[in-house]
Batch of 4 targets.
Target 1
Amino acid sequence: MSLVLPEPPSGIETPAVYIDLDVVDANIERMQASLAHSGVSLGPHMKSHKSVNLARRQLEAGAAGITVSSVGEAEVFAEAGFDDIFVAYTVWAGNPLRGKRIRDLHEHVRSFSIGVDSVAGAQQLALATQGSPRPLRVLVEIDSGAHRTGVPPHEAGDLAAECLRLGLDVAGIFTYAGHAGKSRDARPEGAADEVQAAEQAIASFSAQGVPVGIVSAGSTPTAHFSSRAPMTELRPGEYIFNDADNVRLGTCESLADVGLLVATTVVSTAVEGQVIIDAGTKVLGREGNPDKGFGLVPSIPGSFLRLLNEHHGYLSIPDGVERPSVGDVLTVVPNHACPVANLFDEYVVLRGGSGIGRWPVDARGHLS
Ligand SMILES: Cc1ncc(COP(=O)(O)O)c(C=O)c1O
């Protein structure tokens, strides 16, 4: 994995996160093109970038709507004018403040829907939107093997029927095969699980006489394999940036496809044998392990970010390789881009190798 990555603009204060718009646009185009003749629409997940500017680029390229993971994220994008928003999360609407915010979104966003995987959750959503001019749209979440959330596929119809009895509008089903991100082989297997689970859920809906409109699946690791019937929509997020994990999984070709990078500075070499950079967990998140490290520094062959404290990253350099000096600026490729985006207020934006400005990470911190 050795490669020359775009340099951060000179004079930049670190740590900073910078995005290469040429790479980002190519990533957006590639995903959109891969769905071109599939009959499957794209509802990219905003959790990966939380940026209104980047979301607009995804819509301009052909995305049908957007996916978010919290009511707060939905509010930020609704405020910016986005009118097709799916909260792919089993939000608990029992808190009165939360219930009111959901109702406001439901009544002001042209197409607004939300995930559900329990009768209790559905009851709270129904209560929160009782008396609205139209019923709240929900999608039943099914578990396709990640075993995180979602009802067993064969029980999806029962929950759908209950949602209808509660006065909700059941638009369809959604699933997320998180287990597909474990390895290269797990990708097609996870996608096959999504398809199989969706087919079972459709049969279960049909047994209850409930029509299925939307059949929505995740994710960057599975998108290539699950862009086919019965899916009607995919919700990948990470593909816009990619990261070291996506290179390992083969969801993108190489580090040249990574559009989000972290600029760091060597701040200490005082302890014998150690190189310390100003990027710890408060910059890179905790994504990593002692085997693969906590991020890559491609400009130093064989180097290894072996440990992170909050504000310090420990960079191991192999014997015989030139060591960086205090003050040197290094580029880190994160293992996972999404948590990094969530840790910064703004992106430094590069186009054609030059800095063109800073964009806010608009939905940062809007977690509730
Ligand atoms: C429900 C749901 N949908 C879609 C995605 C997008 O997956 P990815 O970021 O791997 O593309 C996620 C990611 O966590 C998710 O939780």
Target 2
Amino acid sequence: MSRHWSLALGAGLALVILSGAAVAREQRFELRCMVEGAPAKVIEDGSLDTPARAQYLNGQRTIAVSPKLTEGLSAVVQTFLVAHECGHLIASPTLTAAYHQRVNPDRERVADRIGIRLLRDQLKFTLQQAQIIAAAFRVTKGALPAYLPGPERERWILACYKTDTPDCS
Ligand SMILES: [Zn+2]
């Protein structure tokens, strides 16, 4: 009898903890973004007009994340956003103006490629987690022209997870 009681109590407690987690913001995983041997800083920036952005300011590489615009996203997708920005920093460590002005899908494809592989190799993200991330980009609402169309981006992210080649084939 007492065992039943403690089980019931345990289940009730778990429920309380679970419902608490449901309202709380999902915390992204800790990703180390190393660029040319030095770690980029990851900060929260409430004034951002985009979910995340890579910046190179006064020699300090920074990845800024908007707490507001990433609020409803799962932890794995939030972490991918940081990894994607890290991909930009690795691809172009000083983020020159030319890099920003060039509006082409290559820039975004490369950042996606580096990002998803960082999650795979550093955080040991599974294929299932990669699928959740890729699926989150299937529908692109008001996305910049620099990005691949949603379904293509989804396929690209998954293909890069599964391979190690530059063209993810
Ligand atoms: Zn990007």
Target 3
Amino acid sequence: MKHLSGIVARLEAECFPRPWSEEMIAGTLENGCLLLYRAGQSLFLSDPLPDGPFTDSTESYEGYVLAQDIAGDLEILRMAILPPVRGQGKGEKLLGEFLAAVRKKRGTGSWKILLEVSENNLVARKLYARCGFQLLSHRKNYYPGGEAALILQRLEIV
Ligand SMILES: CC(C)(COP(=O)(O)OP(=O)(O)OC[C@H]1O[C@@H](n2cnc3c(N)ncnc32)[C@H](O)[C@@H]1OP(=O)(O)O)[C@@H](O)C(=O)NCCC(=O)NCCS
């Protein structure tokens, strides 16, 4: 039986050139929430989110969102769809399901969803724009290649 952080680490390794380690993921899970995406059967987990043994044996997830609670707002730290199934609208569905799951969990109120994206990541930038994220600020020379990071936010008022 795998731990939740191990399942996310496996997805990370397939999705990112510089994947987060299982330890980094486990640390985020302590104060965060996670949506594991599978068409029609996504799983949303939120605090308290202990990194215990995970009973879902199929592990056939196609993507995920990992986010952290920051003083009442939420920062999306990692979001990805597995490479073989990109470009089919799953990224938009994943983000839509994540936003809906957070709204359902929190009920009424207002909060911000924040994230950071490389200026060169045009697919992700388009996706975030389609999902209502707006530019908040940018950080020059943020990534190792010298690209700027764009800080985007979406205001939720329920
Ligand atoms: C960013 C990411 C999550 C997007 O996932 P995705 O499933 O490819 O996203 P979508 O399919 O919803 O949208 C991507 C493109 O596919 C297109 N698309 C959507 N449905 C489609 C379909 N049925 N057939 C063909 N193309 C389609 C979209 O129009 C979009 O194209 P566009 O950007 O030219 O408009 C994915 O590329 C990824 O995991 N990237 C690596 C990790 C990463 O960069 N994460 C974000 C860090 S901030």
Target 4
Amino acid sequence: MGRSMPMLACTHHVAWIKPVAGGKHQCTYCKAAVAKKEIYPKFEDLGPTFQAQWDAHEKTGPAPAPKADAPAAAH
Ligand SMILES: [Zn+2]
């Protein structure tokens, strides 16, 4: 009975992701800004070329969000 799929169910498939201003990436399907851990397939599975392009674009933006799983630079 009309169980509608909310927009938030978007998988942010990599085919829809495009780099946008500020070093961010946007899903053109649902218009959300997406992080590498939110996309499909998994960022780790997309290969070094894709990963390098993603990281290179991120560096064009303002300070990236702190990564909890990366060791922070000392002071
Ligand atoms: Zn999406």
